[in-house]
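Researcher: I'm preparing a figure for a lab meeting and need a structural model of a single chain. I don't have an experimental structure, so a prediction will have to do for now. The sequence is pasted below. Please return the structure as tokens so I can convert it later.
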Amino acid sequence: MRPYDRKLILEDGEEYLGYGFGARENAVCEIVFNTSMVGYQEIVSDPSYTDQAVVMTYPLIGNYGITDEDFETRVPTIGALVVGEYNDLPSNFRCTKTLSEILEEYGIPGIEGMDTRKLTRSIRDLGSRRVLLTGADTPAEEGVRIIKETPVPRDAISRVSCRKRWFARTPDHLYNVVAVDCGIKLNIVRSLNARGCNVTVVPWNTDARTVLEMKPDGLFLSNGPGDPEDALPVIDLLREVRGKLPVFGICLGHQIISLAYGGRTYKLKFGHRGGNHPVKNLLTGKVEITSQNHSYAVDARSLRGTGLELTHQNLLDGTVEGVCCTRDKVFSVQYHPESAPGPQDSGYLFDQFIALMAAEKKERRLPYAQKN
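Model: Understood. Here is the structure written out token by token.
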């Protein structure tokens, strides 16, 4: 048996020995777990995992490699990847690189070979904590000291958002959507393009005047990392534009909408991450199998009197999964319909956004007498 060369040290002194792959850098992150059986490339490239060490509960990772077309962002910002067994000899006709090569390219450390079941139970029972990924010879006391002396980052959204606007156009488009980039996944843009939308992606701190001057048919608020209360520019933007055009939010965008209307958010013990969470649509009674990735949730009690209606609820723990304000044509969900976990259970949400924009365009075209 070859000697261990890497180690995880949690902030409470718990240790896990393993073998390194990817970049050989040390990293201080928040440790979380993901229960998905596939999709490690999308997880590694999802900006919502910025500064987080993700433990994959599925034991074998890397076996189908990396495909150029499947990235969720151009520059992955995940903190680290923790797996039970890493396969560096992928078998897939679409494969262009190995997972380790991608991690090394972007300076992301990986570790394999420890008991990920035990580690996941620790996170589940004691909650998400900070962790240091380092060399196997680092003493636990030294690792705990490094974690304590490393500041908790509060600028994740600004680091992953685009610096200037960019465009994703589609032939014979029907609608123009402005998407606020708090860490947007590219498959969200593809999903909007597929439904006839030209998408203009703008930085997270874009103001309301700039957005309204583009004369969009709708506004989209994206997913992203970190505490939703840190997204003050986006909260202010929504407060100014609500009621003026249809708005759709996903994940962090859902939390931002709730905060803008006067609701509150709180941090979950270990978050929701994976493609197997049942969510009930309270308007239709149907249950969707959803893909999730978030540390924070909306406080259901705080929604009273805000004008927001609860539309979706998580059947595992009762947390808020969707809200809407019919008057303002605003709605949002906590989960990711573009991830297709059902696989098509939640695609109707994009269609709902399209329907709101279509109705708004029709309303604008009606003569004054017909409107009244």
